[in-house]
Design goal:
441 residues, alpha/beta, Beta-Lactamase, Rossmann fold, 10-stranded mixed sheet, 16 strands, 35% helix, elongated, CpaF family protein, T4SS_GSP_E_ATPase
Length: 441
Amino acid sequence: MAPSSDAATDLRAAHFRDELHRTVVEALDLSRIDRWSPERVRTEVHTLAAKMAPRIDRSLPKPVVDRAANEVIDEVFGLGPIESLLKSPGVTEVLVNAPDQVYVERNGRLERVNVSFTDAAHVTRVIQRIAARVGRRIDESSPMVDARLPDGSRVNAVLPPLTPDSPVLSIRRFGAVLSAADLVNGGTVPPQVLKFLQACVASKVNIVVSGGTGAGKTTLLNILSAYIPPYERLVTIEDTAELKLQQPHVVRMESRPANLEGKGTVTTRELLRNSLRMRPDRIIVGECRGPEVIDMLQAMNTGHEGSLTTVHANDSYDALSRLEMMLGLAGFKVPMPVMRAYIASAVQLIVHISRLTGGERKITRVTEVRGLRKRNSYMTRDIFKFEQRGVKDGRAFGSFQVVGHLPKLLNQLEMAGHAMPEKLFQAGEFQSNENVLMEDR
């Protein structure tokens, strides 16, 4: 039985694509082409495809020729079959578990997509291409890599034997920068809570943003940082530069991993220590995860009020335990009461953000740290919280609550010229903020 016309066209298209791929690799100088602009690469490959098509298969329609050219561009110069996923609106994560198991997170939900690699070696080639572009190496002797794509996306890859079934690749994309209005209109936070946080940032309150992986900590940190006055000098320190501050006086610093010879590492802590000599008004650390927590808390305590950072934690109370653990692992050898006093004198507010069932992000708790009790436990008070009531149609639902505690911070806000009305903190439930519009800053 003869193949259908569509199947025959697909076979001819595949043959043409293979020939074009071979010719591109042979004809173009791949050592120079990495310096070409995407527009030039596209023009060169499409021109070559148009010249080859009449010679190889005159009957191929132009759309088929163009599609083959685009696939070759993605394969030779991009990330192969997942290149199109990285350009797809709404896709925030691309996860490759195996050559034929590719998932994406789209609009907060994971879904499997009809995309596949040829085999495990194909996945490995794409991973090695990513690593090579940023001067990193990944092979059997060094089978893990963290990297950043030119668009800022985070990449993590692991090779066998650490992942015995297949090479594994995870890419987290960062789309357009969200605004405060996006958070409010998307239901992440009520406008009243955001107004309070805005006043806290402007009044130089030391804030820690806590949350799990993918909860939106960096996004929230970016939005809160927008409320810092434009006349202040800011230094940002990150493992991967993601913050996009709009103030005129910003110095961005990024840690550096070891090179191919295992040398040249510059840690977050080294950058943080150096930043203290750069006359910053505030220091913003993208994430505290190790010894740098000592210097971050010291900065908050010694003349850099209003500094901000994030930590991985399950809730705002766990964030304090995480800080203790990081101090201990960093060799901060002091009695527990002294350690807790050190933390409590530095951290004034913890803002916890969560990704709920269904993918929605919510600021689930805003907690004030008021100091220590007589028995050296933390004195904390929830100011606002999101109370989840259940899950319906695969999505969590609940309501934002005012707990009813008057913040100790109100005096600081008033002295800084950002007084908040006490009635805002009367216990009760916020009205739904669906369809509430808020002006962008």
